[in-house]
Design brief:
Number of strands: 7
Shape: globular
InterPro entries: KR_dom, NAD(P)-bd_dom_sf, Sc_DH/Rdtase_CS, SDR_fam
Distance between the termini: 31 Å
Helix content: 40-55%
Largest sheet: 7 strands, parallel
CATH topology: Rossmann fold
Pfam family, one: adh_short
Radius of gyration: 18 Å
Keywords: NADP, Oxidoreductase
Protein name: Ketoreductase domain-containing protein
GO molecular function: oxidoreductase activity, acting on NAD(P)H, oxygen as acceptor; oxidoreductase activity, acting on the CH-OH group of donors, NAD or NADP as acceptor
CATH architecture: 3-Layer(aba) Sandwich
Strand order of the largest sheet: 3-2-1-4-5-6-7
């Protein structure tokens, strides 16, 4: 009875995870819920994943992360959780898209704009709203990509969006000194996004060599399980120190082992 009472009195840390219904987002949500004092508000276009739908410390917001009403709903749900004093412990900005796969000299500009809205603009919008409720030790963790610093044929839209996201993190570190903002390179992960890259229809834009490379990674079981970067992301949003703010770090950076 005493132990149960102690748990009830324990302050709650609440986190928002976008793209929480699959892949890295779902794995990060599960990793965060392993702690006894955490609550996760997940955001995705579809319903909550079965693995978390009935969890007592999970709340789901259905809607597009690009919709400001969805962003406000997620922040309001997090701030309203009992035991948080209206403060958000952190946000994992995971939602992202890779399409259109196309050469920049032929990409549909409307689709390019839509990608940037998901991968960059929505992250800034949610960060604005969450910052108003950020606790004294709040952390913003942005899921970036190696494509932020390495060009790939056919990925111009995606590469540009992740490079922009990394700069957003660097500027947030200056403008919001009370929040630790970090970008993470998750590695090459076995997700739906990787499956989309391997489609034969991408050959002309990506080149046969790149298509073969990513196809071989999958065939040879060399893609990372989402659980691996997710554990690193969870460590960061729970415990990242101030000195990491503004950095772009690998999921397996040795500095994360002590968090």
């Amino acid at each position: 009875m005493g132990k149960k009472k102690d748990l009830q009195l324990m302050p709650t840390r609440v986190f928002i995870v976008t793209g929480s219904s699959r892949g890295i987002g779902l794995a990060t949500t599960l990793a965060l819920l392993e702690a006894a004092d955490t609550v996760v508000v997940g955001v995705s276009r579809g319903a909550a994943a079965a693995a978390v739908a009935s969890h007592g410390r999970y709340e789901h917001v259905t809607g597009s992360v690009t919709d400001e009403a969805t962003q406000r709903a997620a922040v309001a749900a997090a701030a309203a959780r009992e035991g948080t004093a209206g403060r958000i412990g952190g946000v994992v900005f995971n939602a992202g898209v890779v399409q259109p796969i196309a050469r920049l000299d032929g990409v549909d500009v409307g689709r390019l704009r839509a990608l940037l809205d998901v991968n960059v603009v929505s992250a800034v919008g949610l960060a604005q709203k969450a910052a108003a409720h950020a606790g004294a030790t709040a952390r913003f963790v942005f899921v970036s990509s190696g494509a932020a610093v390495a060009p790939y044929r056919g990925w111009g839209a995606y590469c540009a969006s992740k490079a922009a996201l990394n700069m957003v993190v660097r500027v947030l570190a200056l403008e919001l000194p009370h929040v630790v903002s970090v970008a993470v390179r998750p590695g090459v992960v076995d997700t739906d996004m990787q499956a989309a890259l391997r489609l034969a229809e991408n050959r002309d834009a990506m080149g046969q060599d790149n298509l073969d490379y990513f196809t071989a990674l999958h065939a040879d079981a060399k893609l990372l399980s989402p659980d691996l970067p997710a554990k690193a992301i969870a460590r960061l949003v729970l415990n990242a120190p101030k000195e990491l703010s503004g950095e772009f770090i690998n999921w397996n950076d040795p500095r994360l082992e002590s968090l």
